[in-house]
Amino acid sequence: MKKFFSIILIASSMLMIASCECSVSTAKLTDAKICTALNGTQCNQDNPMISGQPEMIYASCLLKYAVSDTKVKFTWYYYGDSKIEVASVLLNTGERSGTVELYSNLSRPDRGWPNGVYEVLIEVQTDNGKPLTKQFTVQN
User: Fold this and answer.
1) C-beta of residue 45 within 8 angstroms of C-beta of residue 14
2) Which end of the chain is more exposed for a tag (fewer CB within 10 A), N or C?
3) Within a domain: residue 104?
4) pLDDT single digits (tens) 27-61
5) Assigned domain for 88 exists
6) Which residues pair with 100 in a beta bridge?
7) Is the CB of residue 74 less than 8 Å from the CB of residue 121?
8) Distance, CA of 76 to CA of 130 (rounded, Å)
9) What pLDDT is attached to residue 3?
10) What is the separation of C-alpha 106 from the centre of its chain, rounded to a whole number of angstroms?
11) Cβ 88 vs Cβ 106: under 8 Å
């Protein structure tokens, strides 16, 4: 009888694990920076204060320990009267793995950059991914 319950318990556990649609990864985001010009695919230095009206604002980071086809989402926000999502993009590493350089850009609006606080949220699209958040200020 004890053996029967052990077999049922093992079979139930295996079924639960097999039915889980969890997506886990060893991928980790690091070195997030904000800038107005890239050096290749990365910002040279972090610029938390943007002056003037640059054509583009970039967010760059490193994705470490990535496997191929890892998805990373960049979501851009502006803090006006409330937090407003301005843009988002989903990137796929494709065949690249290991340490992958990533970036996203936000184009200057037609009426120019409004003064204020902005934020970019960078997320590995897995259940265990730890997001990175970078805030910056535009001041004209």
Assistant:
1) no
2) N
3) yes
4) 999 999 999 999 999 999 999 999 999 999 999 99
5) yes
6) 63
7) yes
8) 17
9) 57
10) 14
11) no
The structure tokens 């120019």 sit at 112
Q: What is the pLDDT of residue 129?
A: 85
Cα–Cα distance measured from residue 78 to residue 114, given in angstroms and rounded to the nearest whole number: 9
Pairing verdict, β 38-39 and 42-43: antiparallel
Low-confidence ranges of the chain (pLDDT < 50): 4-9, 11-21
Residue 79 is part of a domain; what is its CATH number? 2.60.40.2550
Instruction: State both tokens at 22.
Output: 């969890």
56-66 vs 98-107, strand pairing mode: antiparallel
The predicted structure's pLDDT at residue 115: 96
pLDDT of residue 24: 66
C-alpha to C-alpha distances, 69 to 23, 75, 122, nearest whole angstrom: 12, 19, 16
In DSSP terms, which residues pair with 132 in a beta bridge?
A: 122
What pLDDT does 1 receive? Answer: 54
Number of compact structural domains in the chain: 1
